Every structure is written in C-alpha cells, then in structure tokens.
Amino acid sequence: MNLTLATYNIHACIGADGRYEPERIVQVLRELNADVVALQEVEHHDVDGHDLLDYLAAKTGLTAVAGPTLLRKTRHYGNAILTRLPILAVNRVDLTLPGHEARGALDITLDGNGRRVQVVATHLGLRPWERRQQVRELLKLFNIGSANIYVLMGDLNEWFLWGRPLRWLHAHFKRSPHCATFPARWPCMALDRLWVHPRRRLAKVEVHASDLARVASDHLPLKGIIEM
C-alpha cells in the first residue's frame, strides 16, 4: 500500500492571473488524487452558500480539518488539511511570535490502514529568525515511537537552502528533495517542502506542474509517495 501526500498553498484561490476561481483549485486537487493534502492560505470565503473549506471537501470527497490562524468576524484564514484517512487526533498549534503575522500548524494523527501516521502541516513566517523559532517548536511535536510514520509538510517560506531551519529539519528527518514550486508559472524557489520519518518510506517527491496548476495559484503543489 502506498500513501500519497501533497502540500499546496492555494493563495485564497486567487490564481497567477489574479482571478478568484475556487473551481480551479478543486480541479488541481482532483489531479493530485492525494490521501492527505496540507493547504495554506485558506481564506474562508462563501462559495455557493458554503464555506470555502467545506466546498473543497465536498467537491473532492475528502474530510476537512481547519487550522485557522487569523480569526475574523466574517472570514477566517490559515491552514487546513484534507484527508481520506480516518482521523484519530487533532492538535492545533500556535506558532505566532509577538508583533508578526499569525502563524500555526495542524498536528493530526491518522489511521493509515492500521499504521498510525502523524502529519504536521504548517506555513512559517517571512523572517529568518521567526522561522528558526517556529521550527524549534515544530520539532517538539514529534515524539518518535508514538506513531509509525511522521510527516512534516507545508510552505516553509525558507528561501535559503543553507539556512539553519532546513539544516535542523534535515538532521531530524534526513534530507528530502528540494523542488521549485514558486512562482507557479516560472518556479525557481523551493518554498514548499515535505519530510517523512523513517526516510526509507519516502519513495518519491515531485512537483505537480500541470497546465491548470500553473495558473490556479501562485504556488505549485508538491506531492510525495510513502511506501507503507
């Protein structure tokens, strides 16, 4: 059995062409056909009478877990996970640092055909020192031995391949491929990342660069295959 993972910054469903079209994100999610998808920049618009995240879940047949970082009177904003696996536990983690944009992580445990799979999905800050603090907190979430497989994925906003946050993550999980996902039309930066422990379980990491994905958001999705 293989498990397909993906991380996708949907940019509030505003495409590289500046148009707001949730249906394009739905189609890209269908192309991915992933078992677990980490979403970033989920703006809780009303779409056909439904909250955006509920709309994406209904259109894909996946179960949604919300992890908003900004709570507003009308529309929340933040992270989310879509999954077809049974959910065993959910932990919402605040990674916000004083004076900076609210950031967080979704830490969920899934039943992967009898194996416990911990998935932590996140979207880190824009400043290097901010990301260093946030990665320290993320690594505390992984209690090796409490699950069979551990996954960290999301938009890390880490531009520097030699930066300390990536070095710490590589040391913890072992090195994972860096693939350019941003900007979607001409990707040159590996902002979206995916790690798995044990590393031998990670069979493939690739960018999903379909014609639709190149315009649906300003990021391309990153996809990984786990051998269970």
UniProtKB/TrEMBL annotation:
Task: Name the InterPro entries on file.
Answer: Endo/exonu/phosph_ase_sf, Endo/exonuclease/phosphatase, GPI-anchor_lipid_remodeler
In this record, what's one Pfam family?
Exo_endo_phos
**Sorted UniProt keywords:** Endonuclease, Hydrolase, Nuclease
According to the entry, every stretch annotated as the Endonuclease/exonuclease/phosphatase domain falls at 6-219
What Gene Ontology molecular function terms does this protein carry?
A: endonuclease activity; hydrolase activity
Has the keyword GTP-binding been applied to this entry? no
Domain of life, per UniProt, equals Bacteria
Which SUPFAM superfamilies does the UniProt record give? DNase I-like
What this protein is called in its record is Metal-dependent hydrolase, endonuclease/exonuclease/phosphatase family
From which organism does this entry originate? Nitrosospira multiformis
